[in-house]
Design brief:
It is found in: Cytoplasm. The protein is about 10% helix and about 40% strand. The chain contains three helices and 17 strands. β11 and β12 (about 205-210) form a beta hairpin.
Length: about 280
């Protein structure tokens, strides 16, 4: 089984090219591939398949050639991944499956169509504008942290860290407790504190995230979009640019009246072959 390894600000993925949809991908195989000791290692798997050849992408085949079949590292399926989408697009470009141009081009996902464009050394993807929902809480080591539920095609809970508590001191070795009524399929929980001022932005914040199905990751693209929406709301703004610093680097989120653009580096680091039968 051929693979490519890539990451976006440290959020890493195993990319499996499967243009005609012939690979039998299972939760066990995905979990084995993502195992960091006995597999390749990654926060998730990106299967590259033509939209027309995937049952969940067929309805979008007229609008986009490629479908991003994204799986979390525990073998569960997810609707969307912002960093994954940028790494997916980087692979399409490097593999000659898409041609860079001044115009954005579409990619099909379970959350619908996203558009991508090249911005120098970085890649940006346009996703749905985050939808702010009601308040909820995450409980971490007995500490209840109020937050805002946000829908970015997948569920998020953005929790500011109270003054006096260092972001780095949070123990994210286990999942925060959340309300299963509000989040019946789980939720990505983002913890944020004010970041260093950055010229040309309307907000700046530092973020750590615990992703459902993947545990703590070094970055989360949709999470950065969710955070930006909350930061802008709290600043009394409806649109704007927010810099989000994550353990793996910096993402820049631009929220417009209609959408949300996520920009940052997307890097391919290795290619090879893996013996699938040895993993499971």
């Amino acid at each position: 089984m051929e693979f490519t390894k890539g990451h976006g600000t440290g959020n890493d993925f195993v990319i499996l090219p499967d243009p005609d949809g012939t690979l039998e991908l299972t939760p066990d195989l995905v979990a084995a591939v993502c195992d960091r000791r006995q597999g390749i290692g990654g926060d998730g798997v990106l299967r590259v398949v033509r939209a027309a050849r995937h049952p969940e992408g067929a309805a979008l085949a007229g609008a986009a050639e490629w479908f991003m079949d994204y799986w979390n590292s525990d073998g569960s399926v997810a609707e969307m991944c912002g960093n994954g989408a940028r790494v997916f697009v980087r692979y399409l470009l490097e593999a000659g499956l898409a041609v860079p141009s001044g115009a954005a081009f579409p990619v099909a996902t379970r959350a619908g169509l996203v558009r991508a464009r090249v911005e120098g050394e970085e890649l940006a993807v346009e996703m749905r504008r985050p939808r702010l929902a009601g308040a909820s809480i995450a409980v971490l080591d007995g500490l209840a942290l109020p937050g805002t539920a946000v829908d970015v095609g997948n569920p998020h809970l953005v929790c500011p860290v109270p003054a006096g508590l260092e972001l780095a001191a949070l123990d994210l070795n286990r999942a925060p407790e959340i309300d299963p009524v509000i989040f019946p399929t789980g939720v990505n929980v983002e913890f944020i504190t004010p970041g260093d001022p950055t010229g040309g932005t309307d907000g700046y914040v530092r973020m750590r995230v615990y992703e459902r199905g993947s545990a703590e990751t070094r970055s989360c693209g949709t999470g950065a979009c969710a955070v930006a929406a909350v930061v802008l709301r709290d600043a009394g703004r409806d649109t704007g640019v927010v810099a989000v610093d994550v353990p793996g680097g910096r993402l820049v989120v631009t929220q417009t009246a209609q959408a949300c653009w996520l920009a940052g580096p997307a890097v391919l680091v290795a290619t090879g072959e893996v013996a699938a039968e040895a993993l499971v």
